[in-house]
Amino acid sequence: MAGKNSKKAKRNGIFAAIWLLLILILVIVFLVKKDDFAQNLKSTNFFERVVGSTPEFLQNYETKKKESKTNGLLDVDVAPVPGEKETQEPGTYDLADLTSGQEEAAESPAPAQEDSSQPIAKNEEDKAQNERRQEKPPEKPKPQAMTNAKLFFAQVDADGHVNRKSVVRQIPKSDSPLTDTIKALLSGPTDSEKCMTLIPPGTKLLSATVRGGIAALNFSEQFEFNSVGADGYRAQLMQIVFTATEFATVESVQFLIEGQRKDYIGSGEDVWMWIGSPYTRSSFN
Q1: Whole-prediction pTM value?
Q2: In what order do the strands lie in the sheet with 214-219?
Q3: d(CA 150, CA 281)
Q4: Which residues 6+ apart lie within 8 Å of 96 measured at CB?
Q5: How many CA atoms lie within 13 A of 223 on its CB side?
């Protein structure tokens, strides 16, 4: 009997210890969360609904306002407790302050930004001016090199004989000296040269080639007809041959008309001039 009583007493002691532990836990929780409990009881009117009135200590109990918490990235503001009068803390702004601040910002002109393009444009202009200063002035064109050409024209003496007369004229120097010299001859004499030409007017040199000492000179069809007669034909051939053979590479001249070699040039039955073979200077002795 005594054993049963001792076991029962031991069991009751364990239950009592458990209850004391639970009560201690509740007390600790209450002390930690008393503000939340008091606030919930006050905001829900718990005592007023159960017993008809709220205890005086609960009515006078003021909870501490929780401060804003921040994690360094996002600020979290605790919402005000329902029924509690909101108070403005130092460092915060109400709606009027925010509105007035926006109006002042709108009215105050924004600071003028410097035009960064102006220094760039100025630098570019300075650079261009420096480049222009450094540029060399345009070189004057060099005068064209000239060379002396000996041309043979005709001159009529007092007896009416046609003689040759040579003149020296400066012509532009080029890679085709024979062609340039014959063209200068075809242009006729100048007033200062005091001579004449019997080459038919309008005659043009179409081509000129030299091979084996023979200059093949190709003339236009105007070269084929001379209005002066036999003396005129002989004189025009003489002018060409003596002018061409002034070049060391030319010994004789083969006449061509429009690219063709002909036997004769002339304008009638008794006015013909043989051109079927090359002419030399000795052909006119």
Answers
A1: 0.52
A2: 205-211, 214-219, 252-257
A3: 15
A4: none
A5: 24
